[in-house]
Specification:
Strand content: 15-25%
Structural class: alpha/beta
CATH architecture: 3-Layer(aba) Sandwich
Bound molecules: NADP nicotinamide-adenine-dinucleotide phosphate
Number of domains: 1
Shape: globular
Number of strands: 7
Strand order of the largest sheet: 3-2-1-4-5-6-7
Number of helices: 6
Largest sheet: 7 strands, parallel
CATH topology: Rossmann fold
Helix content: 25-40%
CATH class: Alpha Beta
Length: 244
């Protein structure tokens, strides 16, 4: 997938799917892709949030936006979402697996449901979306899959067992996926941000020392603009001055 550098609409012939695009990091990524002229299909679980986000994003100049209420942890919903995209687009080019949940409890207090939900959304959801996308990439044109992992994918912390397991898993999955499909012209990268200023995991107070969601979106654009011969397969990002 040859992406010409930095004219305003350099993604105007590309179709991108962003999971969890109603707010936070996914929303910032969807907005940057739209600004660059891409057609963007996004999802989130709440139909109201999806409708609101689609309406707001459609106000800005750029590519066309389409949103649908989809729970990525449910393979039948993911399949239905992608079948719907077949009616709109002949091929897909970019997938950003961003949808994720954070349930933070010590193992003794963690329910089976907490564990399953975290793994189902953060890890299996990415697999379901990759599978559907890979069937819809044109290998001559190529494609790009970007998985939003976390520094929690390399740094375990107390209360993070399920989240750590899901993000360690996502990292391993991303690397094997890259090895599976690099010769099919599919590039795969995963981004591991530290604390990002969103409502993730019921965080409430905005904190300016954190990474801004737009900064993660900037990294996505930088990856897409890399020359095709080179793959930046893993990116770590952290706040410059974390709270002490
Ligand atoms: N914020 C951080 O500090 C941080 C740091 C490192 C990595 N990350 C990762 O970045 C990603 C995005 O986090 P964020 O901070 O932007 O979180 P956020 O503000 O809570 O947004 C999460 C998005 O994902 C959607 N979502 C959640 N579960 C879903 C599901 N089962 N199916 C489809 N969509 C779903 C949400 O919409 P609905 O609620 O309507 O479904 C929302 O659009 C996550 O993978 C997270 O692990 C975050």
């Amino acid at each position: 997938m040859d992406i010409p550098l930095s004219n305003e609409r350099h993604l105007s012939n590309k179709v991108a799917v962003v999971t969890g695009g109603t707010r936070g990091i996914g929303r910032a990524i969807a907005e940057r892709l739209l600004q660059a002229g891409a057609s963007v299909a996004f999802c989130g679980r709440s139909p109201e949030s999806v409708a609101r986000a689609a309406e707001e994003m459609a106000q800005n100049p750029g590519g066309t936006v389409f949103g649908e209420a989809v729970d990525v942890s449910k393979p039948e919903q993911v399949e239905r979402f992608f079948k719907g995209l077949d009616r709109r687009f002949s091929h897909l080019h970019i997938l950003v697996n961003n949808a994720g949940v954070g349930i933070f409890r010590k193992v003794k207090e963690m329910t089976v449901e907490d564990w399953q939900k975290t793994l189902d959304v953060n890890l299996s959801g990415a697999f379901y979306c990759c599978r559907e996308t890979l069937q819809r990439l044109n290998n001559a044109e190529g494609g790009y899959i970007i998985n939003i992992s976390s520094l929690a994918g390399k740094n375990p912390f107390s209360g993070g067992a399920a989240y750590n397991a899901s993000k360690f898993g996502l990292n391993g999955f991303s690397e094997a996926l890259m090895l599976d499909h690099r010769y099919d012209n599919v590039r795969v990268s995963y981004i591991m941000p530290g604390s990002v200023n969103t409502e993730f995991g019921s965080r409430s107070a905005p904190s300016d020392w954190m990474i801004a969601p737009q900064d993660v979106a900037q990294v996505v654009m930088n990856l897409l603009e890399m020359p095709e011969r080179t793959l930046v397969s893993r990116v770590e990002m952290r706040p410059l001055k974390p709270r002490k």
